[in-house]
Design brief:
Chain lengths: ~350, ~270
């Protein structure tokens, strides 16, 4: 294993190329810009194509076309740019194309956008939410594999911290599993045989008039249920005898985990839970981890979004209380004063003390 | 006057309907209205692809409009795109498969309303794709509403007294927008109202695909198509209405060939 000191955006781009990504299109927007920079610089040398699209609408459309040929393709932006792409995301999902999306979000306020589909219709994307660059590299490889396996878009939910901090990581090439055969990919070979392919989001069948949305949409729901039971991932620490659990996601969880470990060393019966996949949310594992706890504190840097999924997981076993909040510096990129271990320690101590006192009473 | 000899078997066997069916078209029903010009334009394009020996390399990116109903009969690999987005999708296809013949099919609502920036950017980038615009000046699928190519005076569901320039603005000519762009190799406009125009349309498609094969930039063919339903006319009046109201605004001819700009009729 060789380690090198790399910025997150570069690590993401290099991991994507190593994972076989050969098409990328994007539109600059901080903090996604640097991912695009590295793709523009490195992808052509790997035999791929990186297009500096004229808009997010066009970037996602280009990725859509590239995916249709069977290539591994990706796009990305920040929450604002992803808002523009939602119409296509929705259709690409129904067309069952394996898109990978790099969401370098401006903080944590795009949890709903990512986990609730985001566009029109009944659909989900698999959302991988790395805690640091080391995990993000694994997630990039996993994202392309899961996208191909399920024929469903997968999003990496990163942020400013993930893209702009440096870590010592291993980026040496990984042996790649052979790509799954893509019998659906367009190459023109079946043209004129009556069986030419039609990659569509409408449930159209060649030679049949009209569409059959009901059975098509029901089939997709079956796939989403299978993904839910197969792909939920979670990280937990010290939950076995915990009175109180602090839950967090993404880069903010790194701060929370640090504080929880510190408090554990000092004898607090505090645990830590981090959903690694935001969708599917690891509901069963979360409920299991929270068995016997008096309260779950949800530290998220937004108005309270993941807490809804936490409550749906706990199903009343324990109260979930929001202990984070909106926090940003003047850039609006989501790195605010709450992202500070001293402040998190103060918050966790205060809540822990309240729960412990309630127990004693 | 020639007399057909009935004493011997015919020198050629009788021709059946499917003998003349284009190879890339599946024989079946479609949902388009009587008098619609879109199936004629599509057939012209598919015949030309086959004649050029490119049947096995064609991949389409099709937009959303009435013509979407034809895709179940279209026997080339294709992507069903969103309204307006076909040129971007075609870009992704062509960049990953440069050896393929990539075409887009969009209506005026799709290309000129919803997706104007996509066709212009793709053209300026010089994407090696062939873009077909089926222009009938209305949203046929919604029942006859104004588009960005509805001509002045034309009655639609939301211009009941006719399109008024002062209130509804002016129509956009795609050939005017695309011809000056550096990435564009071929620009032409035709129609399908007469047998002569259909032959012209086929000729333009051939030149457009030749432009793509030669890598001379984006090629664009606009076909004015009849929409008697959306124009609120009897079926048989479609062609004459088109010739009298649309053709004077949207001139027929070639505007750019091999990157050289022409003025039709000059």
């Amino acid at each position: 294993m060789s380690r090198e000191f790399v910025e997150g955006a570069e690590a993401l781009a290099r991991a994507a190329i190593d994972a076989g990504c050969r098409f990328f299109a994007g539109y600059p927007m901080t903090p996604f810009t640097e991912v695009l920079d590295h793709m523009a610089e490195k992808l052509p040398a790997a035999g791929g194509v990186c297009i500096n699209a004229e808009s997010e609408l066009e970037a996602v459309g280009m990725a859509w076309g590239a995916l249709a040929t069977g290539a591994r393709a990706a796009t990305g932006s920040v929450g604002q740019g992803l808002s523009l792409m939602q119409e296509s995301f929705s259709e690409i999902t129904r067309a069952e194309l394996p898109l990978v999306v790099f969401n370098m979000a401006r903080g944590q306020s795009d949890y709903f956008q990512s986990t609730r589909g985001g566009g029109h219709g009944d659909y989900y994307h698999i959302i991988l939410c790395p805690i640091d660059i080391h995990e993000a590299i694994d997630h990039v490889h996993l994202a392309f594999d899961l996208a191909d396996h399920w024929r469903n878009p997968v999003q990496i939910y990163g942020d400013y911290l993930l893209g702009h901090t440096w870590e010592s990581v291993d980026l040496s090439p990984r042996p790649s599993a052979p790509l799954p055969p893509k019998h659906w990919a367009l190459d023109g070979s079946l043209n004129g045989t009556g069986r030419a392919r039609n990659i569509n989001s409408l449930g159209m069948t060649k030679g049949a008039k009209g569409i059959d949305p009901e059975s098509f949409w029901n089939r997709l729901q079956g796939k989403f249920r299978r993904i839910q039971s197969a792909e939920a991932r979670i990280e937990t620490e010290f939950t076995e005898d915990a009175l109180y659990i602090a839950a967090a996601f993404g880069t903010a969880a790194k701060f929370v985990r640090h504080v929880v470990r510190e408090m554990r060393r000092e004898g607090y019966r505090i645990g830590y839970v981090r959903p690694i996949t935001l969708w599917p949310f690891p509901a069963d594992a979360f409920k299991q981890a929270a068995r016997g706890v008096r309260e779950v504190g949800v530290f998220e840097l937004n108005g309270g979004q993941m807490i809804e999924d936490v409550r749906l997981s706990l199903l009343g076993d324990a109260p979930a209380v929001s202990i984070g909040g909106i926090s940003s510096d003047t850039s609006g990129f989501g790195v605010g004063s709450l992202l500070n271990t001293a402040r998190i320690r103060e918050i966790l101590e205060r809540n822990y003390a309240r729960v412990a006192a309630r127990r004693a009473a | 006057m020639s007399v057909i000899d009935t004493t011997r078997p015919p020198s050629e066997p009788a021709r059946q309907k499917w003998d003349t069916r284009p190879k890339l078209l599946i024989d079946g029903d479609h949902d388009l209205c009587p008098g619609c010009g879109e199936p004629i334009a599509l057939r012209c394009m598919l015949e030309v692809i086959d004649e050029m020996g490119l049947s096995q390399s064609a991949i389409g990116a099709v937009g959303i409009g009435c013509y979407t109903a034809l895709t179940s009969l279209l026997d080339t690999d294709m992507v069903q795109c969103l309204h307006g987005r076909a040129p971007s999708v075609a870009t992704g296809i062509k960049r990953m498969r440069p050896q393929s013949l990539v075409y887009t099919m969009q209506g005026d609502g799709d290309m000129v309303n919803e997706g104007l920036q996509e066709i212009i950017h793709s053209a300026a980038r010089g994407e090696s794709i062939t873009c077909l615009l089926l222009n009938n000046g209305v949203f046929g699928e919604t029942g006859g509403h104004m588009t960005a190519t509805t001509v002045i005076g034309q009655r639609t569901k939301n211009t009941l007294e006719g399109r008024d320039a002062a209130y509804h603005g002016h129509p956009i000519s795609m050939t005017d927008l695309l011809t000056p762009l550096g990435g564009v190799g071929y620009v032409a406009r035709s129609t399908v109202t007469t047998a002569r125009d259909i032959q012209r349309t086929r000729r333009y498609f051939r030149k457009a695909f030749e432009t793509q094969v030669a890598g001379k930039g984006l090629s664009f063919v606009e076909v004015l198509t009849m929409c008697p339903t959306g124009w609120f006319l009897p079926v048989q009046e479609g062609p004459s209405y088109l010739n009298e109201t649309m053709s004077p605004v949207f001139r027929i001819g070639e505007f750019k060939v091999d990157g050289q700009i022409f003025t039709p009729g000059a």
